[in-house]
Amino acid sequence: MKFDMLRSAKYRLNAYRGLASEAYISLSSKDPIFTAFELGAELKSLSRVEKYFKKEYKDLAEQLSEYTVKLLDRVRTQQELEIILNKAGKPRFNHFESLARFKLALFYKEKKFVAHPSCQQKLMKSWYYGMGSLERASWPKRILMFILFILSYPFLVLVYLVFPKWKMIHILKYPCIKFICQMLSFISFLVLIIISTAESSQTTSSTNSLRTQHQDLHRVYSSFKSFTNGTFMGDDFPMRPLFPSITEFLISIWVFGFACQECNQIYLLGIESYTESWYNLMDSALLCLYFASYTLRYMFALKYILNVNLTDPAQYFFLEWQFYWLNADRFYWQPFDPINAAEALFAVANILSFSRVSYLLPANEALGPLQITLGRMVKDILKFMLLFIVVIGSFMVGLHNLYWYYSVHDDIEITDHEFQFKAEKYFGTVLVTFRTVFWSIFGRGDTDVLSLGEYQNNFTEDIGYIIYGVFNIVTVTVLINMFIAVMTRSFQNIAEDADCEWKFSRSLLYMEYIGEGCTLPVPLNILGGPRALVNKIIKVCCCCKSADDVRETPDEVSGSKIDPDHSNTNGTSSAEHGCRSVDIATIEMYESTLSPEDMDMRRRSQSIIMEPLDYKKVIQTIIQRYIFDIQREAEVTEDDFEEIKQDISSFRYEMLNQIKANEFNINEMATSVSSLLKYVKTLARNGNPSQEDDSPKEENEQSLEDETQNQDVPDTNDTGAL
């Protein structure tokens, strides 16, 4: 790093290439899946730091994800799958928790591992735990079961609050049942919001006035009005509502229940893990808005109660504010009245509440991918928002600098001009200029907003029209079309891998309900809060030592297994006792994660063969299968030999055909040559008849010289014969 940063970066990349090798991990790691997860997360972190090798590090991380999927493909039985997915802790310890390795894959965002059919099969088995018939039931049967459950739900909740460990109420702890109850609770909350919105216009009326409701107080108000020369709030005014409506009170109870649920989630997950989810942050913001809104509402109710009973009419300074808190006529309200602020906060919170429905959409196969696409588009919108702010800000500043004078011309000019023009209205202040520029993006702007009217300043108008036109070209023609193209690309990327993305999102949703917690929905969880708090205090105070002993037992047992050299007094090594203890503890911990159906299957299998569970043996078996498959792909098999034999045979026949073709061509050439020689001899005989007797001698090449020496033919004849 000090002398050659490029060399150091390349060394690091090559080192990680070796560490990410499938062969190296398979032969050296005791837990290849856990090693691949950790190394993949490290490579993703390096891709964000060393951006010059970003593609290489991402390719290595993708290679590790594919490797874990290949290992998962070699899992053959349900027992092996459960051992792999329930593994927890270090490789040398046989610690098991329900879906511990699956939760780790969700934490490291190993989407391909999570979306694997084996993992999804185990997830759905845990999701429909205790309700296996519901998974394959028809819709009429599901509706009938749902109606029966709704009718018996109040009785089950009452029994749960009194006898929480009764076997009959375990149905409330089933994951799918908890999800259905939470969903119905949230839908009820949204219905209450809609009812509250419909009732908001009926909270006040002109018939509920100060004169009709409080005549004594109206006489005090009349005397105060005469003291202020009748310039206060009229002869009479409508009264503000004293207490919130029943619907608003129910909404406040629901909000308190949501707050208890979020506190429980923070206690179970920890503040760091809690803040990693955007939905948790949205819930926190939502609760803050609702708490602020209802705090202002109840504060106003307290103000109303304190001011409706006036005791000293002589204190006119306080009477003005006391009558202000009673008046429902908003014409006399201040801009930041508590009710105005409460309604604004309540409106924003309601929008976030309805958008919170997107959290439940991944449970549906048709709506889940659309929700994921919407989330990606929101990210694209936030990215483009920065670019839009820069463009809008630059043109807003330029237009305001061009028209600033005409917004304050009344304060500058001595001569009073009676005419008005649009530039003063649309570009008067910075806020008005921003509003004009912003709404012009959506086609809400006029072309004559830059007119200066009676001012003969054509140069300023022309420059303003040019700037305004360039702004519309840049935003509408370029930025918006590019923004649409980016969202289209995001939709296509999601569509290409929609199944994997949807299964990962659905797994995140399901894992929130698999396990302890969220037994009672909002707002019934408020009833179980005090009982849970008392039980926790009793458990911490009375059972602290026993709980510590239970937690330390697996480590101590595993530690005795690691030390094979230590022997006890009976001559047997403590490693043997440790192994037996490990096997028993492993079986107990593993069986605690199984459903009753799995326990029955396991007991039947144990009646055939009694073999202790061992994660090390299972992962070694999977690695051996993986290596054998790789070797089988690399080795030459009988099929390869047959293919080579067929290639040789076809080559042989091709060569034979080629030789036969060549022989035929040679014969044809010999025939042509012989016919040509005969034709030459015929021409020679016609040219020199005296050489008819000597023609046979010319065919013999050995006697050619003797024949030419004994000839008495003139040179001309020889030349003609040639």
From TrEMBL:
<keyword id="KW-0040">ANK repeat</keyword>
<keyword id="KW-0677">Repeat</keyword>
<dbReference type="InterPro" id="IPR005821">
    <property type="entry name" value="Ion_trans_dom"/>
</dbReference>
<dbReference type="InterPro" id="IPR013555">
    <property type="entry name" value="TRP_dom"/>
</dbReference>
<feature type="compositionally biased region" description="Acidic residues">
    <location>
        <begin position="691"/>
        <end position="709"/>
    </location>
</feature>
<dbReference type="Pfam" id="PF00520">
    <property type="entry name" value="Ion_trans"/>
</dbReference>
<keyword id="KW-0472">Membrane</keyword>
<feature type="region of interest" description="Disordered">
    <location>
        <begin position="551"/>
        <end position="576"/>
    </location>
</feature>
<feature type="transmembrane region" description="Helical">
    <location>
        <begin position="175"/>
        <end position="195"/>
    </location>
</feature>
<keyword id="KW-0813">Transport</keyword>
<dbReference type="GO" id="GO:0015279">
    <property type="term" value="F:store-operated calcium channel activity"/>
</dbReference>
<keyword id="KW-0406">Ion transport</keyword>
<feature type="region of interest" description="Disordered">
    <location>
        <begin position="684"/>
        <end position="722"/>
    </location>
</feature>
<dbReference type="GO" id="GO:0070679">
    <property type="term" value="F:inositol 1,4,5 trisphosphate binding"/>
</dbReference>
<feature type="transmembrane region" description="Helical">
    <location>
        <begin position="384"/>
        <end position="406"/>
    </location>
</feature>
<dbReference type="GO" id="GO:0005886">
    <property type="term" value="C:plasma membrane"/>
</dbReference>
<feature type="compositionally biased region" description="Polar residues">
    <location>
        <begin position="710"/>
        <end position="722"/>
    </location>
</feature>
<feature type="transmembrane region" description="Helical">
    <location>
        <begin position="463"/>
        <end position="484"/>
    </location>
</feature>
<keyword id="KW-0407">Ion channel</keyword>
<dbReference type="Pfam" id="PF08344">
    <property type="entry name" value="TRP_2"/>
</dbReference>
<feature type="transmembrane region" description="Helical">
    <location>
        <begin position="426"/>
        <end position="443"/>
    </location>
</feature>
<dbReference type="InterPro" id="IPR002153">
    <property type="entry name" value="TRPC_channel"/>
</dbReference>
<keyword id="KW-1133">Transmembrane helix</keyword>
<protein>
    <submittedName>
        <fullName>Short transient receptor potential channel 7</fullName>
    </submittedName>
</protein>
<dbReference type="GO" id="GO:0051480">
    <property type="term" value="P:regulation of cytosolic calcium ion concentration"/>
</dbReference>
<feature type="transmembrane region" description="Helical">
    <location>
        <begin position="242"/>
        <end position="260"/>
    </location>
</feature>
<keyword id="KW-0812">Transmembrane</keyword>
<keyword id="KW-0675">Receptor</keyword>
<dbReference type="GO" id="GO:0034703">
    <property type="term" value="C:cation channel complex"/>
</dbReference>
<feature type="transmembrane region" description="Helical">
    <location>
        <begin position="143"/>
        <end position="163"/>
    </location>
</feature>
<feature type="domain" description="Transient receptor ion channel">
    <location>
        <begin position="1"/>
        <end position="54"/>
    </location>
</feature>
